[in-house]
Write a structure and sequence with these properties.
150 residues, alpha+beta, Arc Repressor Mutant, subunit A, Dna Ligase, domain 1, three-stranded mixed beta sheet, zinc ion binding, Transcriptional repressor
Length: 150
Amino acid sequence: MTDEALRDRWLDHATRTLSTSGRRAGAARTAIIEVLAREGQCLLTAQELLDRLGPRGSYSSVYRTLEELFGLGLLHRMSGRDGIARYEIADPERHHHHLIDETSGTAHPFTDDELERVIHAAAERLGVTLTGHEVVIRGRPSVQASHKRD
């Protein structure tokens, strides 16, 4: 699936979810959702989102909307080593995780069907109804990987 298709699907999903949960599509919320859809699976801080909104955004509307969208399952939230929350759109059809390069701070999204199977099997074995999960792997480039880049 292309990034554009993912963004379009997420935008439709977000609009439907907000509508069915009885939330208004005000100008500030709509602008925030459009920026998030445009950025796709790029991890953004609230400040970065506010910067992209320009005069259309305010701190209160950005923070309130991010929390609302996260609470509705429309966004993933991840904190880096700096403690700052970063957000990205949650693909309604395909779950992914992140590998964080601690040297550069870059987040590399990845999918792994076997990891998903293990997580769901563990939940079943423990008698837990899985409502969500997040896997963040942190690491530094290995010596071999560093030499391959040179």
